[in-house]
Design goal:
Number of strands: 3
Distance between the termini: 14 Å
Radius of gyration: 11 Å
Shape: globular
Strand order of the largest sheet: 1-2-3
Helix content: 25-40%
Low-confidence stretches: none
Length: 61
């Protein structure tokens, strides 16, 4: 799974040649800067993984 930022730091996952917006799977607040958000996801990936996979599977990107 490759994480990526797009459109002014919206978090997504690369799927084939597109990016799927996964912001609905990751709680974000106004205090999260992009690097902090990415660090939080990496540190707690086990708790986010299934939600991220569900969003990616249900979207074409």
């Amino acid at each position: 799974m490759k994480l990526a930022f797009f459109n002014d730091f919206t978090l997504g996952v690369v799927k084939d040649d597109k990016i799927v917006d996964i912001s609905e799977a990751i709680p974000v607040n106004e205090h999260n800067h992009p690097q902090g958000l990415l660090n939080r996801i990496i540190e707690s990936f086990g708790s986010y993984r299934s939600a991220i996979e569900d969003v990616v599977e249900s979207s074409e990107g």
